Amino acid sequence: MAADRACVIAWLQRAGAALHEQREYLTSLDAAIGDADHGTNMDRGFKAVLEKLPTVAEADIGTILKTVGTTLVSTVGGASGPLYGTAFLRAGMALAGKQDLEPADLVTGLAAAVEGIMARGKAQRGEKTMVDALGPALDALQAKVAAGASQDEALQAAVAAAEAGMTTTIPMLATKGRASYLGERSVGHQDPGATSAALLLRTMLNG
Asked: What's the pTM value of the predicted model, to 2 decimals?
């Protein structure tokens, strides 16, 4: 079943609620290896997104996602604003004019988002970033869609891969961002960006 713009709006509302609920947890993860503000920043950014959603309720899905991106860039501090902002902007550009999303469109959107994050952050897998959650999620989504799986099955596989990828960041040595300044002390801590990325994907499942 295709996801329409109402599904996308509902997902963003669930994402905002989940980030608000988990803001202290995300900030505690960031306190170990960053600036102790990831949860606060993401909560603030998505609160602004939720306030903007009524203005794009009748827009196409690409426009909705691009609006999310510009809002995050302007309201989220640290590295997360530009990275998540770029992800939503790239996804919005890739899905411009869409009124509904088929499973293949989800692949297109996520692929554009991941490519945007990797380009903006100059990040690859294995560097203890959100790419370690989103990269495996994209692989799983592509594989399931190529095999003819339903949208729900494909998303479930993507979420499972993202959450597994998130936990693989724990033993990693950070080589990007604030966490990289800690060197070996970054080992043993779960990356907050990978955690929020997996959380955003998980909120897609309730649609």
From this structure: 0.95
